[in-house]
Amino acid sequence: MGYPVDHPLLITVPSVVNELKSSEASMRFDIAREDGARVEMPQPYMVDEVISVAKQTRDIDELSVTDIDILAKALEYKDDSTLLTDDYAVQNVAVMLGIDVKPVVQKKIRDILVWEKQCVGCRKRFDEGDVCPICGSALKKRRKRKVVFV
Asked: Hey, is 7 helix, strand or coil?
């Protein structure tokens, strides 16, 4: 998006490169690479940690493989990095992991949310799934609770 970054080092993951759709985005990325941006694979144990926390907040269904990779890489550099993202599920998991987050265009999340699923038919609540095991209706995502952070 052309967001000005005042840090000398940018790091991303290979799956982000694969998601560049426009020629402008590819050009911006090529310029960033010439200026020292790096593409690194996330550590597998960091990916496992991200998945574990995403399951706790129940954001796992909202996160793509790329989101998980980015979170894992940010976790690896947690003490010296800021994750730039407007994705609320990514922000939610990042804050739970203790990663500094800065939105690009949107507002930053104010609370960490833990999600659950509720049946649109019988209104029963579940931790996961897309179809109610009781009545067969669709399950809709809803906030279960919020975890206040500073």
From this structure: coil
Q: Give yes or no: residues 46 and 117 share one domain.
A: no
The answer to whether position 36 is within a domain reads: yes
Digit-by-digit pLDDT tens for the chain (150 residues) are: 455 555 568 888 999 888 888 888 888 888 888 888 899 999 999 999 999 999 888 888 889 999 999 999 999 999 988 998 888 889 989 988 999 998 877 777 666 667 778 899 898 888 778 899 989 999 987 776 566 553
On whether residue 127 sits in a domain, the answer given is: yes
Candidates 64, 57, 136; CA nearest to 92 is 57
What does the alpha-carbon distance between residue 73 and residue 45 come to, in Å, rounded to a whole number?
Answer: 11
Q: Is residue 137 in a domain?
A: yes
pTM tops 0.85: no
**Domains identified in the chain, total number:** 2
Q: Please indicate, yes or no, whether residues 19 and 79 belong to a single structural domain of this protein.
A: yes
